Amino acid sequence: MPGNHFGKENERKIYLMKSGKVWLVGAGPGDSLLMTIKGRKVLEEADVVVYDSLVGDSILSTLPQEAQLINVGKRASNHTMAQDKINQLLLSLAQEGKKVVRLKGGDPFLFGRGGEELELLAENNIPYEVVPGVTSPLAVPAYNGIPVTHRDYTSSLHIITGHKKAGKEYDINFQALVRTKGTLVFLMGVHALKDICGGLLAGGMDPDMPAAILQKGTTAGQKRIVATVSTLAGEVERKGIETPAIIVVGRVCELADRFQWYENLPLGGWKVVMTRPAGMISRMAEKLRIAGAEVLELPSIQTVPREPDEMLENALLNIGQYQWLVLTSPTGVKILRQNMDRLKIDVRSFASVRIAAIGKGTERELRKIGIYPDIVPSRFDGETLGRELAQLVREGDRILIPRASAGNQALVRYLEKAGGLVEDIPTYDTVPARPGIVDEKELFSRGEIDCAVFTSASTVRGFVQATEGLDYSKVKAACIGKQTEAEAARYGMETFVAEEATMDSLLELVCNMKKEGTKWNY
Fold first, then answer.
1. Cα–Cα distance list, 215 to 172, 222, 496 (Å)
2. Higher pLDDT, 411 or 281
3. Beta bridge partners of 158
4. What is the pLDDT of residue 379?
5. Cα–Cα–Cα angle for 465, 31, 500, nearest 5°?
6. Are 268 and 290 in contact (CB under 8 A)?
7. Is 122 helix (H, G, I), strand (E, B) or coil?
8. What is the rounded CA–CA span in Å between residue 485 and residue 494?
């Protein structure tokens, strides 16, 4: 009846409103900078992330701390969860009303079984979107200096799965592939390399046709072996190769040595751990990536504002009584601004107060609210600020320092010795962040991490808490300043310190560490 039909349609609409949604997101081939902007935005909103083992470590290390993370890792002959179970999991999570990201290496629709995962969702009227990813058949050769098409070499590209079921012959027309005269890219074919090369030779390919195998492309583990179709398998046996890797066949492979660029970057081939407060974007990590490093962001500490903070509120409401306001971190400025907004205090209230700030990051945050500091120390640490500010402080000056509860006391001692009346108000605490899903401790133990980069003493402490039990003598620590270096040395790390306490100087330090050959040999 019409009435019943109307009721069913309404029920369906209400169900759709209550249901969650699934996004199939391609994470790209490994380099986190190759993940799309849309993919990043979707991840930030996710309630649940269902991820594969082929997603790069540098991306896995930045997954949202608040989301539920489920590993359904799939590699050849090693499936954490069968495909039909993954399909059912996505459906169940969406039916619970959750925003679900299915994060897949490369592109979801290129041998990623994305179509299969959508079938069950479509049958059950679950909303979904597909976010394409940069795919390895294009990106990995590009990172190795191999253009998959070139007008002087070939005008076509063919992507083939190299995977075959155990005990079965390839269902591939090798003769047809040879006749295309195009570039051939085989995915998931490392273990069948001999069969692939043999099939191409039997199909009539010139034995001297250039061919390459490309390991862990776009990451610090990138490696290539370039030979010919007739010699590639033997070269791989002699030199060794690790998965994941792709096979490229075609004359364009001979351009690799001429067009190589990734390994020529200042930090190409280096894998670096960068500690940061949870939830904060690290400008230093971006600088390291642009220089070529594969960066694992370890959210070792989390900043928790003290709310309500009656001491800070009272100080801000009477800000005109102070001669100096001292800010020691970008986080401190952000919390100051939040309290100003809540109390409806604008920058005019600071007209008679002089401002001191540690570091360019703190200065940058201040400028966002229209405040330019009167003093920034020559070195960006609490001791230097205390020593230099003490020369400007007069007897009886009231000094407000809203900062982390575990702040450097050297700053206070210098100011009090100069006659200042210091109010050191804790506005936030630093606590250990939730452990991530990348096992940095295991990577250090295997010698796969080249160095750890620390931008504060608190990130050193957070790193130690996150990697408890690690032999810290195996850690090469690039430190932004003396205080950070002292904290790292306290745990037995081999320390290196930047000439200046700036991000650019720290980047230069890491580049020099690589140049001088500080890589461990275990």
1. 23, 5, 31
2. 411
3. 184
4. 79
5. 60
6. no
7. helix
8. 9
pTM of the model: 0.78
Amino acid letter at 78?
Answer: N
Q: Taking the CA atoms of 463, 469, 470 and 472 in sequence, report the sign of the dihedral they define.
A: positive
- Over residues 230-253, the pLDDT tens digits come to 999 999 999 999 999 999 999 999
- Cβ atoms 85, 7 nearer than 8 A: no
pLDDT digits (tens, 9 = 90+) for 372-389: 999 999 877 788 899 999
Exposure of 390 by Cβ count < 10 A (0-12 exposed, 13-18 middle, 19+ buried)?
A: middle
Tokens representing 246 are 């792709």
Q: How far from 406 is each of 303, 403, 413, 429, CA to CA, in Å?
A: 12, 8, 15, 7
Tokens encoding 214:
């490309």
- In this structure, what DSSP letter does residue 275 have? E
Is the Cβ–Cβ distance between 97 and 119 less than 8 Å? no
**How far apart (Å, rounded) are the C-alpha atoms in residues 435 and 136?**
29
**Total residue count of the chain as it appears in this document:** 522
CA distances from 283 to 62, 190, 254, 280, 455 (A): 14, 37, 37, 9, 11
* Local structure of residue 192 (DSSP, 8 states): G
Positions marked catalytic: 52, 74, 188
- 197: part of which helix (H) or strand (E)? helix 193-202
Q: What is the pLDDT of residue 291?
A: 96
Structure token digits, residue 157: 């590209």
SS3 assignment, position 427 = strand
For residue range 437-463, list pLDDT tens digits in order. 888 888 988 889 999 999 888 889 888
| The pairing of beta strand 324-327 with beta strand 354-357 | parallel
Per DSSP, the three-state class of 157 is strand
224 beta partners: 214
pLDDT of residue 302: 74
Q: What is the largest CA-CA distance in the chain?
A: 91
The answer to whether residues 123 and 95 touch, using CB atoms and an 8 Å cutoff, is no
Q: What is the DSSP letter of 435?
A: P
Residue 313's H or E segment, with its range, is helix 310-317
339, 344, 347, 353: CA torsion to nearest 10: -70
Contact 28, 35 (CB under 8 A): yes
**Residue pLDDT, tens place only, 27-66:** 999 999 999 999 999 999 999 999 998 898 999 988 887 8
